[in-house]
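Action item from last meeting closed. Structure (325 res):
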C-alpha cells in the first residue's frame, strides 16, 4: 500500500512538462479556429499548412500554434490529417484547446455556456487524434518532438490543473480566475468600455480605480499558490513530478453508487493507429469512434482542397457543430 506521506515534488525545469507556465502563453502568434462555426476551416487551405511556410522563420524560432474549441470532431480530424499529408514540419508546435466553459463577459451567455465541446472531452478528442496520427507520444514512440497541448477553460484551482495534466495537457491557461484575482466582479460590461473595476476600459476615470501595484501582487500570489497547491496534490499521490500524473490517479463519481477512474472513461488511443488501421487502446478495447472521425475527415479535406483559396470563413454549413448540456 502506498504511503499517504510524501514529499512535495520540486517545480520542473525541463522542457517536457511546461507546468509552471500556468498563466504565461509563450508563443509568437495565435491563430483562432473554432470548428463550431464553419464546416470547412480556412486553416485547411492556409499557408500555414505548407512545408515552405515562413511562419517558423518569422517567429524567430519561437513556438507557433493556434487555438480552437472543438465542435465537430471530424473537422479537427481533417486538420490533423492535413498535417500528416503535408508533412510533420507543417504541424504546429502547440494547440490550445478551449472548452465550452470558457468565455468572456462580452460573450452572449448561450455561447459561453453552451456552444462547443466541454474541455475534458475536447482535450481528449484532440489528444486522441494527434496520437492516432503519430503526432503526439513519447520520444520512444514517435522518435522526436510532439505537438504540445494547452488546456483552457475555467481552470481556477490546483486540482483543475492536475485533472487536465492527467488528461494530457502540457500547459494550463487561466483567464477568468486571473481576472477575479485582478478584481473582476462579473459586471458583464467588458465590451462597453464601462467596466466599473477599471479592468476592461480605456476611460481614465474608471481606470483610476484599478490599483496596479496592489492587484499585481494579488495576481502573483494567486498564481504561485495555485501552482504550489497542484504540486502538493501531485506529492500526495506519491509522485515526484507532474509528468507522472495519469488517468489512473483521478476518479469520477457518477452517482451515489458508481465511480470510475479517468482511465476507464477516457481511453488511450494507440500512437499511429489511425495511419496503419490498427485498433485497440488500453485493455485492447477498440476506439471505432476515432476511426469514424478519421474516415470522415478525408472527405472534408478533399472538399476544402476543392474550394481552393475561396473565402469560406463566413460560411456556416449545418449550423453549430456541437452544444453542451
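Sequence:
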Amino acid at each position: 500500500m502506498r504511503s499517504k506521506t510524501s514529499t512535495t515534488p520540486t517545480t520542473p525545469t525541463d522542457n517536457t512538462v511546461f507546468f509552471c507556465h500556468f498563466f504565461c502563453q509563450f508563443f509568437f502568434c495565435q491563430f483562432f479556429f473554432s470548428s463550431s462555426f464553419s464546416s470547412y476551416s480556412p486553416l485547411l487551405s492556409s499557408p500555414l499548412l505548407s512545408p515552405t511556410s515562413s511562419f517558423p522563420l518569422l517567429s524567430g524560432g519561437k513556438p507557433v500554434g493556434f487555438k480552437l474549441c472543438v465542435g465537430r470532431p471530424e473537422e479537427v480530424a481533417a486538420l490533423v490529417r492535413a498535417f500528416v499529408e503535408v508533412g510533420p514540419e507543417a504541424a504546429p508546435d502547440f494547440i490550445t484547446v478551449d472548452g465550452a466553459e470558457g468565455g468572456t463577459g462580452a460573450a452572449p451567455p448561450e455561447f459561453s455556456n453552451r456552444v462547443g465541446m466541454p474541455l475534458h472531452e475536447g482535450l481528449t478528442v484532440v489528444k486522441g487524434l494527434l496520437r492516432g496520427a503519430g503526432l503526439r507520444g513519447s520520444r520512444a514512440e514517435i522518435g522526436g518532438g510532439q505537438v504540445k497541448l494547452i488546456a483552457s477553460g475555467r481552470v481556477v484551482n490546483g486540482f483543475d490543473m492536475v485533472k487536465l495534466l492527467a488528461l494530457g495537457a502540457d500547459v494550463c491557461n487561466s483567464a477568468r480566475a486571473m481576472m477575479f484575482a485582478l478584481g473582476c466582479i462579473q459586471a458583464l460590461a467588458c465590451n462597453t468600455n464601462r467596466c466599473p473595476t477599471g479592468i476592461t476600459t480605456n476611460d481614465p476615470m474608471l481606470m483610476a480605480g484599478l490599483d496596479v501595484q496592489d492587484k499585481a501582487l494579488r495576481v502573483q500570489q494567486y498564481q504561485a499558490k495555485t501552482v504550489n497547491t497542484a504540486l502538493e496534490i501531485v506529492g500526495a499521490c506519491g509522485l515526484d513530478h507532474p509528468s507522472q500524473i495519469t488517468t489512473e490517479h483521478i476518479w469520477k463519481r457518477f452517482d451515489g453508487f458508481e465511480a470510475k477512474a479517468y482511465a476507464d472513461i477516457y481511453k488511450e488511443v494507440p500512437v499511429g493507429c489511425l495511419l496503419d488501421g490498427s485498433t485497440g487502446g488500453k485493455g485492447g478495447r477498440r476506439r471505432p469512434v476515432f476511426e469514424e472521425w478519421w474516415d470522415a475527415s478525408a472527405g472534408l479535406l478533399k472538399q476544402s482542397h476543392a474550394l481552393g483559396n475561396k473565402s469560406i470563413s463566413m460560411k456556416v454549413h449545418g449550423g453549430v457543430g456541437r452544444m453542451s448540456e
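Note appended to the action item: The longest strand covers residues 65-69.
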